Amino acid sequence: MEHSPLNPAEKFDASRAGEYARQSRIALAGYDACHELAACVLAASLGNGVPARILVVGVGGTAQEIILLSALEPAWTFVGVDPSPSMLETATEHLKANGLLDRTQLLLGTVDDLPNDAAYDAATLIGVLHHVQGDDHKRSLLRSIQARLKPDAPLIVAANHYAYAEQPFLLKVWGERWRQQGATSDEVKAKLGKILQGADPPRSEEAVQGLLHDAGFGDCQRFFSSLFWGAWVTSKVA
């Protein structure tokens, strides 16, 4: 079955959702540090102790964004969207365990399913962009987020941003990362084969910036990097 360009939910089924917390921390060295810094970046952007409504796009899996943002800023509330039922269910379990369901509205769907008004003080898009096929669909997603943000609202974007096949050394390092965590040689080969399928990361940091400019955001500033991964903060152009 082919994956739909705007809805990569098909590959995030129950089995993948169940292993997501562990797998993501291996695949992305510094997973927790990236999320911790993202929380600090948003707090620095919006100000301490200021009530804010945060849109979390692709909340499924760990819901780590909400867990860390809520701990740093108790006055913030959240709306999380995810197109995968299994990933959203797993996120709900994590939020419930952390007592955060009363501060969070969860929606099974996409940003386009939200009201088209500028209702959010900030947004996060972490681990999503490289799963969206084609620049046109990436721009569409970013424009949908932009339309729902207040003027000058910050956006955190974190994703892989190299064409994997053009970075053979980084792929080799990434394979060693898996071996370091106990994967066998055959498992490493399978992981390397899997990363080359079903994802379409922007080809460079400049490509990420271009997509953001096209969608109505300003210049971005990178605050985290790990192999293929980068994390940036930008803001809606008023």
Automatic annotation (TrEMBL):
This is tRNA (Cmo5U34)-methyltransferase. It holds the Pfam family Methyltransf_12. It comes from Pseudomonas duriflava. Keywords: Methyltransferase, Transferase. PANTHER family: BLR7975 PROTEIN, METHYLTRANSFERASE. Gene3D superfamilies: Vaccinia Virus protein VP39. Residues 61-154 form the Methyltransferase type domain. GO terms for biological process: methylation. SUPFAM superfamilies: S-adenosyl-L-methionine-dependent methyltransferases. One of its GO terms (molecular function) is methyltransferase activity.
